[in-house]
């Protein structure tokens, strides 16, 4: 009798020996199966490729249609502006001898005309426009307009995060230069970081303005001044006068970074609340000064801001006194003094103007009650 187990072992061994003796047979079966799978996969890819081509064709067609619509909207807005100017002049002429009914009609039309610029501004924030002088010099004639709200808000949010990260980095860097290390090379690296930071801010802010952000002109211009000031500090050679001003400059930078961090932290929260209430524009940004919308909960920042403004004045006066010293040979001393004086006058007058307008508004409001 045969043992069943031995038969099974014999068959298994025979199959193993056959597979070892004829490996090409298994390889052929495997290759045939793989080739069939590859052919099936290729057929699926071919069909998908046809769909991709059709989708891309439709995409290019829609782009051409969008481009034509953009040109049509831009031309229509330009015509509207021209006609409204002509109508405004005509209405002023009609005001000479109007009847009460005509006067009411004229006032109603003029009120509607005053609202049109804001509507046109919103429309144009989604339309391509010619870059300003600064963007044209830096980027050339490149369209920087983002075509949907999500892209605009994402770019604005990335700008805010960039400011926060660099503010913290500058805070740590200025503290290190002021209290830990005293090397001219490290100071130069810090000033180079300031130049790069403010150059980048000016470019990003110009792009945001093209996309509908409403930033006061001074808060953009003062970044150009800071960029120039940092560049001059970068070229200031090592010497007695540099060492005389170094600690004062680094301490001011440390304080400025601290105040900017406070402003970002509280302004971002305030803007979020105002947007939720529908009282703020989606593209409003945190700034390094004070604006009218900050009266709700941010007035405590005013003492910090005014102290920083007067510190800029103190820096300017210090540098002007240093420029009068006999040993002063560096042109950087006088140029830095002028820059700080410009910063003080611009920052102080702009912040004071916001406070004054708010005071007048409250006075008018109390009189009306």
UniProtKB/TrEMBL annotation:
UniProt record similarity statement: Belongs to the TMEM120 family.
Any GO BP: fat cell differentiation
GO cellular component, one term: plasma membrane
InterPro entries for the chain: TMEM120A/B (IPR012926)
Keyword line: Cell membrane, Endoplasmic reticulum, Membrane, Nucleus, Transmembrane, Transmembrane helix
Main location: membrane
Residue spans crossing the bilayer: 162-183, 219-237, 293-311, 331-356
Cellular localization per UniProt: Cell membrane; Endoplasmic reticulum; Nucleus inner membrane
Native species: Oncorhynchus mykiss (Rainbow trout)
A matching Pfam family: TMEM120A-B
Name under which the protein is recorded: Transmembrane protein 120Aa
Domain of life: Eukaryota
Record's bilayer topology term: Multi-pass membrane protein
């Amino acid at each position: 009798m045969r043992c069943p187990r031995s038969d099974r072992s014999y068959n298994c061994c025979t199959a193993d020996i056959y597979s070892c003796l004829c490996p090409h047979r298994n390889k052929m079966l495997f290759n045939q199966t793989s080739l069939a799978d590859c052919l099936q996969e290729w057929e699926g890819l071919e069909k998908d490729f046809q769909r991709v081509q059709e989708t891309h064709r439709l995409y290019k067609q829609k782009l051409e249609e969008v481009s034509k619509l953009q040109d049509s909207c831009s031309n229509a807005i330009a015509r509207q502006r021209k006609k409204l100017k002509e109508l405004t002049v005509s209405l002023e002429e009609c005001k000479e001898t109007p009847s009460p009914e005509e006067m009411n009609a004229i006032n109603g039309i003029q009120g509607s005309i005053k609202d049109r610029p804001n509507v046109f501004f919103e429309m144009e924030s989604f339309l391509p426009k010619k870059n300003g002088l600064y963007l044209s010099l830096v980027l050339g004639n490149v369209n920087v307009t983002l075509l949907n709200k999500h892209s605009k808000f994402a770019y604005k949010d990335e700008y805010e995060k960039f400011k926060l990260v660099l503010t913290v980095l500058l805070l740590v860097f200025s503290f290190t230069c002021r209290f830990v290390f005293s090397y001219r090379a490290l100071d130069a690296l810090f000033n180079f970081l300031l130049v790069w930071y403010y150059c980048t801010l000016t470019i990003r802010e110009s792009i945001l303005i093209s996309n509908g952000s409403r930033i006061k002109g001074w808060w953009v211009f003062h970044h150009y001044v800071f960029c120039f000031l940092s560049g001059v500090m970068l070229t200031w050679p090592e010497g007695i006068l540099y060492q005389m001003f170094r600690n004062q400059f680094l301490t001011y930078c440390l304080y400025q970074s601290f105040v900017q961090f406070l402003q970002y932290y509280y302004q971002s929260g305030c803007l979020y609340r105002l947007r939720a209430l529908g009282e703020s524009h989606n593209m409003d940004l945190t700034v390094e000064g004070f604006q009218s919308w900050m009266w709700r909960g941010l007035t405590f920042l005013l003492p910090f801001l005014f102290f920083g403004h007067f510190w800029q004045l103190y820096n300017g006066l210090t540098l002007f006194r240093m420029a009068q010293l006999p040993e002063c040979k560096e042109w950087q001393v006088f140029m830095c003094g002028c820059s700080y004086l410009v910063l003080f006058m611009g920052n102080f007058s702009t912040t004071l103007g916001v406070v004054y307008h708010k005071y007048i508004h409250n006075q008018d409001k109390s009189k009306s009650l």
